[in-house]
Write a structure and sequence with these properties.
Elements: H1 2-17, E1 45-47, E2 53-55, E3 63-69, H2 74-90, E4 95-101, H3 106-115, E5 122-124, H4 129-134, E6 143-147, E7 153-158, H5 163-170
Parallel strand pairs: 3-4, 4-5
Antiparallel strand pairs: 1-2, 3-6, 6-7
Length: 174
């Protein structure tokens, strides 16, 4: 856990100093990921902030924006309202946002989710290094992965991404 905090603090500083166009990103090109896209491991069950089990595999066949974030992360606080908007706009087309909080207690998650009007699943990632490591692990926060319907990671980036950038990455996959 301590290693995650050190990496997160370093990553947040790096991400905050980095303009959005310079954030690590690989844009999606077609309605499925290319053959070089790494398959996403969705074989995990996490608790949501209400204590309900959520199987990531239940979202196979959808376009997934998987966001690793924390309540103390300044770029996350800017990005989350964009994800709320995108989820509202594209949910009916098979798009889902899954927010995995990396180290916050449930009580903090609930008040944060209410304050930011988070309308998508908020999952508890504290003490779940297995999930974090399956995707990288993230070197900073936020770290987002866009997973195509075919289950491949199409795009990933660490640091703040604008709503327009995120939308540009998901639209070809819908």
């Amino acid at each position: 856990m301590r290693m995650w905090c050190v990496m997160a603090i370093f990553g947040v500083g790096l991400a905050a100093a980095m303009p959005a166009p310079l954030a690590q990103s690989q844009p999606a090109q077609t309605n499925t990921c290319d053959a070089d896209g790494k398959p996403a491991n969705l074989d995990f069950v996490l608790k949501d902030m209400n204590g309900k089990d959520v199987a990531l595999s239940a979202y196979k066949g959808k376009v997934i924006l998987l966001d690793f974030w924390a309540t103390w992360c300044a770029p996350c606080k800017i990005e989350i309202p964009n994800f709320v908007e995108l989820y509202t706009k594209y949910q009916s087309r098979g798009f889902v946002v899954l927010g995995i909080s990396v180290d916050d207690p449930v009580s903090t998650l609930k008040s944060f989710a209410e304050q930011f009007k988070m309308n998508y699943p908020v999952l508890v990632g504290a003490d779940r290094d297995d999930v974090k490591n399956a995707f990288g692990p993230p070197v900073g926060f936020p770290t987002a992965f866009i997973i195509g319907r075919d289950g491949r990671i199409c795009t990933s980036h660490t640091g703040f991404a604008t709503k327009e950038q995120s939308e540009q990455e998901i639209l070809p996959l819908l």
